[in-house]
Design a protein that fits this description.
The structure is a homodimer of 395-residue chains.
Chain A: E1 18-19, H1 29-35, H2 45-62, E2 68-72, H3 76-87, E3 93-98, H4 101-112, E4 116-121, H5 130-137, E5 144-148, E6 150-151, E7 156-157, H6 160-169, E8 173-177, H7 189-192, E9 196-198, E10 212-216, H8 218-225, H9 238-245, H10 257-273, H11 275-295, E11 311-315, H12 322-333, E12 335-336, E13 338-339, E14 348-352, H13 360-376, H14 385-394
Parallel strand pairs in A: 1-12, 3-4, 3-5, 5-8, 8-9
Antiparallel strand pairs in A: 2-10, 6-7, 9-10, 11-14, 13-14
Helix pairs in contact in A: 1-10, 2-10, 5-6, 11-13, 11-14, 12-13
Chain lengths: 395, 395
């Protein structure tokens, strides 16, 4: 029967977009091309060599020599859950620092894994000092101290030195969400004393969503080795998955082969650019964006000293309707920016300049389109934001 | 710094393979091409439309009108775990029919979800009759009866009518692993009275690994709605994920966008071919393969009346070394077939004719190459297996 009579949709043909939301981010065509290469078997020696290369490059990008470093077969939240279900046994005490959606999610995931969870709270849009975190410990010991390095919901960067200090004081392993920081901010797991970390591919690694890099220190591995109870998740059980990524090559589940091709290429591109250069690039374009936004009277949710480079949270001005503005950006300019989450829903925009999206082109498009969106709702800022952004580039 | 000085691997360039193992399977180039199209945001209206199309097509391919039908963001084992962690609360009684690796895995996953698991065992390579399953119930009630429709480790097809009958007798929901049957065997969830099912994309759907379609009947949804305890997995919690796939479009995790493009295309190809034609095609090529294998003295692990079409398990002849033979096939012919698992490791080959791999080309290559592999180890069968296979095609 001809396809036209089967009531079938056409093949996907995505409209042209520039992804400047909280992720997925702009993706280099080389990564998409890599993903479309022929699928290999998950035990094919040629694929095992690719896995080894992914591991090696991932270690370099994460700044670690941790043996247990590889991408989990799920999106960033699967990486979060991997850390908790493997490190936690029922009744373990965990302290989670909550200043946004992802800290909140950590606490939820930890509870489901059977942890006794304490939280220390901070205003959304602010980071934690060592003193703040210390107050949360109340002098008690914890198995894990959990912080979000880059809180994607608010645009806040967390100082990891403070977190490491307090983790030492309360005898805890330091667990870090680096979903939005990896590849966009300086991050060196070993130097920073991170014991467990998870990330996602769809932010500053500029790869489609679907994989979650994780890494565990020797101290964390010792905790894994000493478990008394089985890991509650079979799919995320590191004791079995590490046998596949390790020299045994034991079959656990069928790895998402083509996603790994994409990650392989994105890691290559990052190392070719150089981590320092890449971090500097993210910083430059974030500063230009901020200058442009502020020049037209928009206020940012986070102060400069603790503001993320890859994600900028902007207060939506009085009288501007969020949904209409974002639909305007998408329809008129093919530009995606993100809305707010939780208490920031409807009053905040989140602009991501991540990976291949952290460019002067992105900043230019975003500022010009945002200005047009304000004018569309009758608020002409009267100033061209590209002037202030341009000044940053010229300085 | 030039890439050559960075000690970086080259971009992935997979060698040419014909994947006739237990999956991943041969993939239509249209699916790989779809996967490489530009990534959209997971809340972009254009992407939400693609999600709706995937749901609709998936329902047609699974033979169901179940509202709760969508692909989970993980490989097939994530789908298995999704079924158990959502349907089970601690202490629930579950009966698992075990006649291979995947039944064994079900029992393991169910235990980790807190179920009180009973198993009923069958010789690997044989299916369960209603009488066999009934004996396993010992007259007791169960919340779930779990069977593997297509046991990928042995090549056995399970009669679902028998399973449905016994599930009714013990008051259980029927949970079915259809990882290797979906798209290759007749499967109509609604007609067969399946309450919960999971599959994988990398078998007869001929899509790369990374997604796991699941579906839940109204009765199963009622069980989900009546839960007293939180689902132990946040990542796999259907109460939240269904809000993203449903009309609320609530953000849960970032969906693996490009994988969904691939699944969209593979479902289109299946529906264009037609399910009946596709099932007949799998049957035809499996019969030709079996005839060819038997004509050169190889014996099959499963009797014809309960043998899978997409996967044929073959006893490795005395004196033939498994590893050497499979390396020969891979190196000389670019042909991947699978080894055995568990008690079948080293004594069984598993040949998959799945999706785009279920063709006369595949059968021809496989038989010719296997014959050469036997000759390479000094066992010339003296007969050309293509004659017997050809006879099936001519009949």
């Amino acid at each position: 029967m001809p396809a036209s009579e089967l009531n079938l949709p056409a093949s996907v043909r995505p409209p042209q977009r520039v992804l400047l939301g909280p992720g997925p981010s702009v993706i280099d065509p080389a990564v998409l091309s890599a993903m479309s290469r022929p699928t290999l078997g998950h035990l094919d020696p040629a694929f095992l060599a690719i896995m080894d290369e992914v591991r090696d490059m991932l270690r370099r990008v994460m700044g670690t020599e941790n043996e247990l470093t590889f991408p989990m077969s799920g999106t960033g939240s699967a990486g979060m859950e991997t850390c908790f279900v493997n490190l936690i046994e029922p009744g373990d005490a965990v302290l989670v620092a909550v200043n946004g959606v992802f800290g909140t999610r950590m606490a939820d995931v930890a509870r489901r894994a059977g942890a006794v969870v304490s939280t220390v709270e901070q205003t959304w849009g602010r980071s934690f000092s060592a003193e703040d975190l210390r107050a949360g410990t109340e002098g008690k010991p914890f198995k894990l101290l959990c912080v979000v390095h880059a809180e994607t919901s608010t645009g806040v960067l967390q100082d990891l030195t403070a977190a490491r200090t307090v983790a030492d004081e309360c005898g805890a392993l330091l667990l870090v969400d680096c979903v939005t920081s990896l590849g966009g901010h300086a991050l060196h797991l070993d130097d920073m004393g991170v014991d467990a970390a998870y990330s996602g591919t769809q932010k500053c690694l500029s790869c489609p969503p679907g994989l979650s890099p994780v890494s565990f220190s020797e101290r964390a591995c010792a905790v894994l080795a000493e478990r008394k109870t089985p890991v509650q998740s079979w799919y995320l059980d590191l004791s079995m998955i590490s046998s596949y990524w390790g020299s045994e090559r034991a079959y656990h589940h069928t790895a998402p082969i083509n996603m790994l091709y994409g990650l392989h290429e994105s890691l290559r591109l990052i190392l070719i650019e150089g981590l320092d250069r890449r971090v500097a690039r993210h910083g430059l374009h974030a500063r230009a964006l901020a200058a442009g936004l502020e020049s037209i009277g928009l206020s940012l949710r986070v102060e400069a000293h603790e503001r993320l480079a890859p994600l900028t949270a902007v207060a939506i001005p009085e009288g501007i309707e969020d949904g209409r503005a974002r639909a305007f950006l998408l329809d008129q300019f093919g530009l995606e920016i993100g809305g707010g989450l939780g208490p920031m829903a409807g009053n905040t925009w989140r602009i991501g300049l991540m990976g291949a999206g952290a460019t002067r082109h992105s900043v230019t498009l975003c500022l010009a389109a945002l200005r047009a969106a304000l004018i569309d709702q009758g608020q002409d800022p009267g100033v061209d934001p590209l002037l202030a952004a341009g000044a940053v580039y010229m300085s």
